[in-house]
Design brief:
The structure is a homodimer of 236-residue chains. Chain A is of the alpha/beta class. Chain A is 47% helix and 19% strand. In chain A, strands 2-1-3-4-5 form a five-stranded parallel beta sheet, with helices on both faces. In chain A, strands 6-8-7 form a three-stranded antiparallel beta sheet. Chain A binds a DNA duplex (30 and 30 nucleotides) through α9.
DNA sequence: ACCTTCCATGACCAATATGAACGCAACGGT
DNA sequence: ACCGTTGCGTTCATATTGGTCATGGAAGGT
C-alpha cells in the first residue's frame, strides 16, 4: 500500500518545519507539501486533486492569518475535497471542538504536543484506514455493523493516558517483551508459567494490551471446558 | 439541559415512522421533523436554522430518491449547517463509510438494526455532547488533550450490547467472519470443521444469527439422515 | 517509625465450549 | 407400505477457564 499523502497547514515557520519533519519520520506517511495560510492550502489541495494526486490527510492549524481553520474545512467540504483532517491548535475551546467534529475532523491535537502524542494520533488514523481498506480482496466488500464499529474505535484516542489503576509499567514491559518474542499465540496460563506471575496478573495485563490493540485476542477451541483466550503480538 | 433536536431523513414511510418513534422513546432527544427526500431535508434544516431553532442531529439515510446522502451532507457543510449526522443505510460499502467519515458523520448504522443498537449509538453521541458541554462556562473553558481524547473516545467507542447467555463475542465474531466469506450456504457441520469448534457450539451461534436476521436458514434434503439446516449470509 | 498508596496474590463464583446420549425425520431396500 | 439405516437436532452434565473480591506485602512519602 502506498503512503498516505499529508499536507501541513501552519503559519509559523518553525512549527511548520517541525510538523513536516514529524511526518517524514513516520512510516506509511509522506509529506505532500506545506502551506502557510488558508488560501494557499486550498489552492494546493485543488492543484493536487486536479493532478490526480490528491492529498489524503491535512494537518490543519486552526489559527491562521487569513482564514480560520474551520472555514478552511468548510470550504474543502463545499468543493468536494475528501481529505481527512486532523486539527492542530493551541485554542482549547470546547465549542470549537464541537464544530470541528461536525465538519469531519477525525482527530484533535492541542499544542504543545510531544512527538509521541503526534505519532500516536497518526498511527491510530492509519489503523482506521487499514481496517476500512482491508475489504478482503473483492470489488464489493460487505461490512457488518461490528466491522464499522471497530474501524471507528481505532480512531478513538488510545493509551497516552496514564495506565489504568492496578497496572505497573515494569510488569507491563515484562509482558510486552515476552509477547514480542513469541511466534505463536499464547494463553494467559502460559504467560503465567513463563514469567512466574499469577494467572490473574498475567490476564490483567494481556487484557489491557488487547484493549489497546497491541495484541490480538482469539479463542482456542477443541478442548473441553471453557474456551481459553489466546493472545498474539500484532506485527506490522 | 434541553433535548437534542433530531431530524429524520428517510424515504420509506414505514422506516421513517419507526425511526421517529425510536427517537421519541429516548430521553434527552426530541423529534424536530421528518423529511422524505434530500430537497425537503435541506429546506427543513434551513428553515429551522433561520427560526433560531436549529436541528442538532440528523439521522440521514444514504439511499434517497433525489440525492445521495453524501451529497446532502456536503451541501449541509457548504451552507454552514453545523448539525451532526448519523448515517443510516443498508449499503455496506467501505468506501462509502470512508467518505462519510471525512464529511463529518459521527456514527454509522447499518440496516436492519434493533432498537437496542439504535439507542446505543444515540446514547454514545449524547455522552459525547455532555462531555464537551460540561465545561461550557463561555470562553473560560480550557480543555486539555486528555479531555478532548476522552470525548472522542466516548463518541467512537464500540458499545457492547448484551448477548444472550451462553454466547461469547469472540466466538460470535469468528462465526460471522467465516459466514461472510462463504459464497454458498453452509451447514453447521461445515462450520464446525472449518473453525475447529464443536457441532453444538457452531449450531448455537448459527441459530442465534438466524434469529437476529443476519443469516437465513433453509433445509437441505437429498441425503440420507435427518434433513440438515444450511445457513447463508444475508447480503444487501 | 507510622501511615498511605499501590500492586500482586489466592480463593471464590460465574461463564461457556465440549462430549455423549437420546430423539427425530428423510432415505432406500424389502 | 413397512422398517431398518443414517445422520443431524436437542438436551444435559462436565471440565476448565474467565472474572471479581478481599487480603498481604512492598514501596514511598510524611
Amino acid at each position: 500500500m502506498s503512503d498516505i499523502r499529508v499536507l501541513v497547514v501552519e503559519d509559523e515557520p518553525v512549527a511548520a518545519a517541525a510538523h513536516g519533519a514529524y511526518v517524514g519520520r513516520l512510516k506509511g506517511f509522506s509529506l505532500a507539501g506545506t502551506a502557510p495560510d488558508g488560501q494557499s492550502a486550498l489552492r494546493l489541495l485543488a492543484e493536487f486533486s486536479a493532478a490526480g494526486n490528491p492529498v489524503e490527510l491535512v494537518l490543519l492549524d486552526m489559527n491562521l492569518p487569513d482564514l480560520h481553520g474551520l472555514d478552511i474545512a468548510r470550504r474543502m467540504r463545499a468543493s468536494g475535497l475528501l481529505a481527512d483532517i486532523i486539527a492542530i491548535t493551541a485554542v482549547r475551546e470546547l465549542n470549537i471542538v464541537r464544530s470541528a467534529v461536525s465538519i469531519g475532523v477525525v482527530q484533535y491535537l492541542i499544542k504543545p504536543f510531544t512527538y509521541a502524542t503526534f505519532a500516536d494520533k497518526l498511527a491510530s488514523y492509519q489503523q482506521f484506514r487499514e481496517q476500512l481498506g482491508a475489504g478482503s480482496g473483492g470489488a464489493r466488500s460487505g461490512a457488518s455493523q461490528s466491522d464499522v464499529d471497530q474501524a471507528f474505535a481505532s480512531l478513538r484516542a488510545p493509551s497516552e493516558l496514564p495506565l489504568p489503576k492496578g497496572l505497573s509499567t515494569s510488569t507491563l514491559d515484562a509482558v510486552k517483551e515476552f509477547m514480542k518474542q513469541q511466534q505463536d499465540a499464547v494463553s494467559a496460563t502460559e504467560v503465567m508459567d513463563a514469567l512466574g506471575m499469577s494467572r490473574v496478573t498475567a490476564r490483567r495485563y494481556l487484557e489491557y494490551l488487547a484493549d489497546a490493540g497491541t495484541v490480538s485476542r482469539t479463542a482456542r477451541y477443541g478442548a473441553p471446558g471453557r474456551p481459553e483466550n489466546e493472545y498474539r503480538w500484532n506485527r506490522g
